[in-house]
Every structure is written in structure tokens, then in C-alpha cells.
Specification:
By secondary structure, the chain is of the alpha/beta class. It has a domain of about 130 residues: Rossmann fold, CATH 3.40.50.720. It contains 8 helices and 6 strands; from the N terminus they run ααααβαβαβαβαββ. A 6-stranded parallel β-sheet has the order 3-2-1-4-5-6. α6 links the parallel β2 and β3. α2 packs antiparallel against α3. The two termini are about 15 Å apart. The N terminus is likely disordered.
């Protein structure tokens, strides 16, 4: 368990104990997405400006979220000394949240676009959003039907969407399948598994050492 995890947990429980806020959406991640909330926040900002009001909190929220969606690509570049050309990256999770096939404004799209721009090869898996990703990217990425197939021969694995089936994977199998044992955990699902002690180069989001 990361040294910061207890502090983060206490903070989440403390703030989340206020029923007006709740704890459900207080987990670290690579930014929010979807078809509604990003659009609604930006619409709120524009509505305010139309009436001569600058809604600074809303505009800053949208701006920070857009910047934060690049966090996974930045972590990957750090693992490869800034050069991702020719590297094969496995991506687990394409939908903006579990239990949907909606990829609109998904952090996974920002990651994939950055990887392609950097010259990397992308192989991805999602239990429901595969068809949507194929329709969007065509043959620019490979979308496979099995999560472990995505990892085979990859130089790194990035988890983006917290699907239940990704929460307790076979890490021995993953390590054998990867060319390099690099895991980027965009949802901090794996912080308690002692992956660095197992020989992985592991990074989460917003935790000590990550």
C-alpha cells in the first residue's frame, strides 16, 4: 500500500461524509469525460460570459481537466525518456466510465491520440466500447477481444477505465507477456498489490512515488 493511501482515504472519507458532496467521485483518475458533464461545464461558462459574468471556478475546472487528461501520456513518456516512437502500448479501458460503451471525451482518447502523435503503436481492450473505438480509429489502432492479448508483446500497460475485470488481474501473466514490466495505473486500482516489490515499474495517479 502506498504511504499516501491512508491519508488519501481519510481525506476522501472526511470530505465525502458531507452528504452534499458524497465520496463516490472523490477518487484520483485521469480526468472526467462523457457526453454530458464536460459539455455542460463549458456551456455554463459560455452562458455566464454571454451575461457578462466570468464563472472562474467552472472555467478553471474545465481547463484543469483538459490538462489533466494528458497525465497518463506524460507518465509514459517519462518511462521511455521522452521517446515513444516504435513502442507498443497496451491500453485497458476505452469508455469514459465502466458499464457503458460511450467513449465521448474519454481520457483514453486523449491518451491514444498522444501515443499516435508520438509514433507509438496502440493495442487496446474494453469489454463494451471496442466497436466504438474501431469506428473512431479504424486501422490506426488495434482493438482486441481479450485483455491479456492486448498485453502480449507490449512495452507497457496503461489502465484507464476501472472495469471490474481489471481490478484483480493475473500480474504474473502480465509480467511474462510484457517486454518491459511497466504499469501505469490511471485509477489507482493496484496500489495495494506491492507491484514494485514484484519487479514492476509501477505508477499511479496522485500518490507518493507516482
Amino acid at each position: 500500500m502506498s504511504r499516501s493511501a491512508p491519508t488519501a482515504t481519510r481525506w476522501r472519507h472526511g470530505v465525502g461524509s458531507d452528504a452534499r458532496i458524497g465520496s463516490k467521485f472523490l477518487y484520483a483518475g485521469p480526468g472526467y469525460g462523457g457526453s454530458c458533464f464536460p459539455k455542460d461545464v463549458k456551456a455554463l461558462v459560455h452562458t455566464g460570459r454571454d451575461h457578462g459574468i466570468e464563472l472562474e471556478l467552472a472555467s478553471t475546472t474545465a481547463r484543469v481537466n483538459d490538462r489533466h487528461k494528458g497525465v497518463l501520456a506524460r507518465k509514459l513518456r517519462g518511462q521511455f525518456d521522452g521517446d515513444l516512437r516504435g513502442h507498443r502500448v497496451a491500453v485497458w479501458g476505452l469508455a469514459f466510465k465502466p458499464k457503458t460503451d460511450d467513449i465521448r471525451e474519454s481520457p483514453a482518447l486523449w491518451l491514444i491520440d498522444a501515443l499516435l502523435a508520438d509514433g507509438a503503436e496502440v493495442v487496446a481492450h474494453d469489454p463494451e466500447a471496442a466497436d466504438a473505438a474501431r469506428a473512431l480509429y479504424g486501422d490506426r489502432i488495434q482493438v482486441v477481444e481479450d485483455a491479456y492479448e492486448a498485453v502480449e508483446g507490449a512495452d507497457a500497460l496503461v489502465l484507464v477505465t476501472e472495469w471490474r475485470q481489471y481490478q484483480n488481474p493475473d500480474f504474473d501473466r502480465i509480467k511474462k507477456a510484457l517486454k518491459r514490466p511497466i504499469l501505469i495505473d490511471g485509477r489507482n486500482l493496484w496500489t495495494s498489490y506491492g507491484l514494485r516489490e514484484q519487479g514492476f515499474s509501477y505508477e499511479g495517479v496522485g500518490v507518493v512515488g507516482s
